[in-house]
Specification:
There is one protein chain. By secondary structure, this protein is α+β, with helices and mostly antiparallel strands. The chain folds into three domains: about 5-290, no CATH class; about 295-410, no CATH class; about 420-480, Arc Repressor Mutant, subunit A, CATH 1.10.10.410. Helix content is about 40%, strand content about 20%. The protein has helices at about 40, 55-65, 165-180, 220-240, 285-295, 300-310, 315-320, 325-335, 340-360, 370-380, 385-395, 405-410, 420-430, 435-440, 445-460, 470-480, and strands at about 5-15, 75, 75-80, 90-95, 105-110, 115-125, 130, 140-145, 150-155, 190-200, 210-215, 245-250, 255-265, 275, 280. β5 and β6 (about 115-125) form a beta hairpin. α8 (about 325-335) packs across α9 and α8 (about 325-335) runs parallel beside α10. The longest helix is centred in the middle third of the chain and has 20 residues, at about 220-240. It is elongated, with a radius of gyration of 29 Å. The N and C termini lie far apart (about 70 Å). Heterotrimer of A, B and C subunits. InterPro entries: Asn/Gln-tRNA_amidoTrfase_suB/E, Asn/Gln-tRNA_Trfase_suB/E_cat, Asn/Gln_amidotransferase, Asn/Gln_tRNA_amidoTrase-B-like, GatB, GatB_C_1, GatB_Yqey_C_2, Gln-tRNA_amidoTrfase_suB_CS. Its EC number is 6.3.5.-. Belongs to the GatB/GatE family. GatB subfamily. This is Aspartyl/glutamyl-tRNA(Asn/Gln) amidotransferase subunit B.
C-alpha cells in the first residue's frame, strides 16, 4: 500500500521583549536559576498581571508579516493543568479569540516548486518554567526564570506532506520572525520550539489518520529526523495490524530515540475559562497603521529585490534573503565591492562553508563584509587570481591581517601580470615538455581544448599560482598554435 504523510506544526516563538508578558521581571537568557521569577510569575496570592504592550505589538507584527487577519478584540483564558514547572497551576493563554487569525506562508522547495502553508492562527501566551534532570540523583530541579516569558504559538493547518516541506516551512518561519525582529531565533536557547503533529493515511484517502504530537524540537535537523522516524513507526504499526494511539511523544536528537510521553489531551481536559484578572485587548486601527508603517522589508520582497537589483538567480536570492544577517552581509559586500555576482559566490561559498565548519554565526564572522569586499576588489583588478584569493581569505579568517591588501603584501601573493615574465615562464614549460607539445600540435583541433589544460597547470605551478590565468591561456594558445 502507498502511504501519504500529513504534517501540521505548532511553533512556540519567544518574543524578544526585555520583560515578561505580565510582569516586569527580566527575560534575559542565562541568569542563575530562579533569579528572574517574581511574585506575579509565581502566581502568589494578591498579585495582578499587567499586559506587556510590546508583546502585543510583536504579535501584531507577525500577523502583518504573513498577511493574516488581526483580531481587533482578543481575550486571555486560563488553561488549567498541573505540572511542576507551572507554579500557578494554570497557563494564561488565548483560545476563543486569539490575536492573529488565518494567514499564509509561501515556501519554495528544493525542486523549485512553490507551496502555500496555511496558518490557522497565532495566539499569545506565557511560557512555563523548565525542569532540570541532570545532576540531581533521581530528582528534578525546577528553574522558573522562563515562567511568564511572552510567546506566540503559531498553529498551521495540516498542509505539509513530508519532512522536507516541514523543514523548509520552519526555516521560512524562522526567517520571518527574525526579519521582523520579534524573536532572536536562537533555537539552542529555546527561542523557537517546534511541536510536530504527524499522521499517515492511504494515498487518495481524504479522511485524516490518527495523529501523534512530538514536542519541543529545537533544531531543523532534529525535526526532520523525528518526522521520518515517526512516519516509519506509524506505517509499521498499521501494516502489522495495530492502531495508532493519539499521544504526545518525545524525541532525543542526541540518541535518535523516540518514546511515548503521555496520551494526548483534548481541549476540554484543560477546563479553559476567561482570565478574570485581564480585560479583553482592543486593537485600534491607529495602532495597526503605525506598526504597518514600521514593518521591515520581508524575506519574499527582499528575494525579489535581490533578483531585480543585483541580477541573482532565484536559488541564490532565496538563500541570501532567507536570513536577515546573511542578507545584510551580502548586500554590504555587493555594494562595497561593486560586483554582486562575485559577492554572492563568495558569501554562498567560502563564507558559509567556513561558518558551518566552525559553528559560527555570520554576525561573528572573522571576515567582515567590508574585508570580503576588499578581497573581491583585488580579484577584479587582477592583483590576485581567484585561487590565490582563497589563500587570502583563509589568512583573513585566521586573523593574519586586517585586510586583503595587508595579507597580499605580507605573503607576497600579488599576481604576475607582466607579459614578458609570463612568456619566459611559458617558454621554459614548453621546452621541458617537448613530447607533450608535439602531441598537442599533431592532435585534431577539437581535442586541443582539453590538452592545453596540462600546459596551463604546469605554468601555474611554475609561477606558484601567481601568474594571471587569462594571460597564461592566451600566450600558451598563441605559442602552441602559432
Amino acid at each position: 500500500m502507498t502511504w501519504e504523510t500529513v504534517i501540521g506544526l505548532e511553533i512556540h516563538v519567544q518574543l524578544a521583549t526585555k520583560t515578561k508578558i505580565f510582569s516586569g521581571a527580566s527575560t534575559a537568557f542565562g541568569a542563575e536559576p530562579n533569579t528572574q521569577a517574581c511574585a506575579v510569575d509565581l502566581g502568589l496570592p494578591g498579585v495582578l498581571p499587567v499586559v506587556n504592550e510590546e508583546a502585543i505589538n510583536k504579535a501584531i507584527m507577525f500577523g502583518l508579516g504573513i498577511d493574516a487577519e488581526i483580531n481587533k478584540v482578543n481575550v486571555f483564558e486560563r488553561k488549567n493543568y498541573f505540572y511542576p514547572d507551572l507554579p500557578k497551576g494554570y497557563q494564561t493563554t488565548q483560545l476563543e479569540k486569539p490575536i492573529v487569525g488565518a494567514g499564509n506562508v509561501e515556501i519554495t522547495l528544493k525542486d523549485g516548486s512553490s507551496k502555500t502553508v496555511r496558518i490557522h492562527h497565532a495566539h499569545l501566551e506565557e511560557d512555563a518554567g523548565k525542569s532540570l534532570h541532570e545532576d540531581y540523583h533521581g530528582m528534578s530541579g525546577i528553574d522558573l526564570n522562563r515562567a511568564g516569558t511572552p510567546l506566540i504559538e503559531i498553529v498551521t493547518e495540516p498542509d505539509m506532506r513530508n519532512a522536507e516541506e516541514a523543514v523548509v516551512f520552519a526555516k521560512k518561519l524562522h526567517s520571518i520572525v527574525t526579519t521582523l525582529g520579534i524573536c532572536d531565533g536562537e533555537m539552542s536557547q529555546g527561542s523557537m520550539r517546534f511541536d510536530v503533529n504527524v499522521s499517515v493515511r492511504p494515498k487518495g484517502q481524504e479522511a485524516l489518520g490518527i495523529r501523534t504530537e512530538t514536542k519541543n524540537l529545537n533544531s531543523f535537523k532534529f525535526m526532520e529526523a523525528a518526522i521520518l522516524k515517526e512516519v516509519e513507526r506509524q506505517i509499521d504499526v498499521i501494516e502489522d495490524g495495530g492502531k495508532i494511539i493519539q499521544e504526545t511523544r518525545l524525541y532525543n536528537g542526541d540518541t535518535g530515540e523516540a518514546r511515548s510521553m503521555r496520551s494526548k489531551e483534548e481541549a476540554n481536559d484543560y477546563r479553559y475559562f476567561p482570565c478574570p484578572d485581564l480585560l479583553p485587548i482592543v486593537i485600534e486601527d491607529s495602532r495597526l497603521k503605525k506598526l504597518r508603517a514600521e514593518m521591515p522589508e520581508m524575506p519574499d520582497a527582499k528575494k525579489a529585490r535581490f533578483v531585480s537589483e543585483f541580477g541573482l538567480n532565484e536559488v541564490d536570492a532565496e538563500i541570501l534573503s532567507g536570513d536577515q544577517a546573511t542578507a545584510r552581509f551580502f548586500e554590504t559586500t555587493a555594494k562595497s565591492s561593486g560586483d554582486a555576482k562575485l559577492a554572492s559566490n563568495w558569501v554562498l561559498g567560502e563564507v558559509l562553508k567556513s561558518l558551518n565548519a566552525n559553528g559560527t554565526a555570520i554576525s561573528e564572522s572573522p571576515v567582515s563584509a567590508e574585508m570580503l569586499a576588499g578581497l573581491i576588489a583585488r580579484i577584479k583588478d587582477n592583483t590576485i587570481s581567484g585561487k590565490i584569493a582563497k589563500q587570502v581569505f583563509e589568512a583573513l579568517w585566521n586573523g593574519e591581517g586586517k585586510d586583503a591588501d595587508a595579507v597580499i603584501e605580507k605573503k607576497g601573493l600579488k599576481q604576475v601580470t607582466d607579459t614578458g615574465a609570463i612568456e619566459t615562464m611559458i617558454d621554459e614549460v614548453l621546452a621541458a615538455n617537448a613530447q607533450q607539445v608535439e602531441n598537442y600540435r599533431s592532435a585534431p583541433p577539437e581535442k586541443r581544448g582539453k590538452m592545453i589544460g596540462f600546459f596551463v597547470g604546469q605554468a601555474m605551478k611554475a609561477s606558484k599560482g601567481k601568474a594571471n590565468p587569462g594571460m597564461v591561456n592566451q600566450i600558451l594558445k598563441k605559442k602552441l598554435d602559432g
